[in-house]
Amino acid sequence: MNSDWEDRVAAAWARFDDYAEEDAPAFRAAIDTLVAELPGGSPLGPFEQACAWDSTGRPDRAVPLYRQALDGGLARVSGYKARRARIQLASSLRNTGRAEEGVRLLTPELDAPPDELDDAVRATLALCLSSLGRDREGLSLVLGALAPHLPRYQRSMAAYARLLVEPADG
Question: What is the pLDDT of residue 24?
Fold first, then answer.
């Protein structure tokens, strides 16, 4: 899609916090209006609609739309948005009681080329792991993601993160 459309979508999202909780349908309608401008079959439409449902507290409605966007070729249109869709889909799966699916979806993202979404991948995967009672693995991911941002202690926090999941010597 063109940059004008992307700018208008970004502007709609920038106003998201202006909507009261009871105005969620109005926000989703604003996104639907923008989506209606897309050519048929564009994976951007279901992606934006999934985000709108998700952000207004309806992960159950978001899940099939994220899948539709990904299956419809979102990665070919925008690798960045496809990665966001996988992160958000995993979160929605967790929120709808399917954390194991979220783990399967996000685990390969740990080996993806690094970008600004790496910490979001790790945080969301940590939540999915925690929902499955795998708190040590989740904490390891979060500490590993946090370590590079610390003004000091990067090496020790990274080591502690590793030790949470490595077998103890003995």
Answer: 94
